[in-house]
Design a protein that fits this description.
Order of helices and strands: EEEEEEEEEE
Structural class: mainly beta
Bound molecules: copper (II) ion
Shape: globular
CATH superfamily of the largest domain: PCu(A)C copper chaperone
Distance between the termini: 22 Å
Helix content: under 10%
CATH architecture of the largest domain: Sandwich
Strand content: 35-45%
Radius of gyration: 15 Å
Number of helices: 0
């Protein structure tokens, strides 16, 4: 589970305005039919500074006994949407992010995130962005991601 709190590189517009302050939710046991059972919570997007780039964060909880992977994200907000991990101040693009069985995948400022490049419009706080999460095994999940002020901190 990723609980790194290192800020994103200062070169990244969405970077240091946010820091993870919420504790990790403990995962329960459940499911057991051998399939991933996914639910998404805590989604938000800090209001992007420009129309060039935005980031989004959320938690994918898996109550099933089988692991899954987040493989892609689609949205009208941008064509170029990628999954990133953060190592220190460096972002790295990855093909997928693991959702462990009876566990969770946590995306958070300074850690795993979804990056939107070349936005079709610049969303502002109070709006919502519809995204669809695609997984290796589970059916796609549609999420209405609330846009928060650029300095929003989850859990406050
Ligand atoms: Cu990134």
């Amino acid at each position: 589970m990723n609980s790194r709190t290192t800020p994103l590189s200062r070169r990244i517009a969405i970077g240091s305005a946010l820091a993870l302050t919420a504790g990790l939710a403990l995962t329960g046991c459940g499911g057991g039919d051998g399939k991933p059972q996914l639910s998404v919570s805590g989604a938000y997007m800090p209001q992007p500074v420009t129309d060039q780039m935005a980031g989004a964060y959320f938690v994918v909880k898996n109550d099933g006994a089988a692991a899954d992977k987040l493989t892609s994200v689609t949205s009208d907000l941008a064509k170029d949407i990628t999954l990133h991990t953060t190592d220190g101040s460096k972002m790295e693009r990855v093909d997928s992010l693991p959702v462990p069985a009876n566990g969770e995948l946590k995306l958070s400022s300074g850690g795993n995130h979804v990056m939107f490049m070349g936005l079709t419009h610049k969303p502002t706080a109070g709006q919502k962005v519809t995204v669809e999460l695609h997984f290796a095994t589970a059916s796609p999940v549609k999420v209405e991601v609330p846009v928060k002020p650029a300095d929003y901190r989850p859990g406050k």
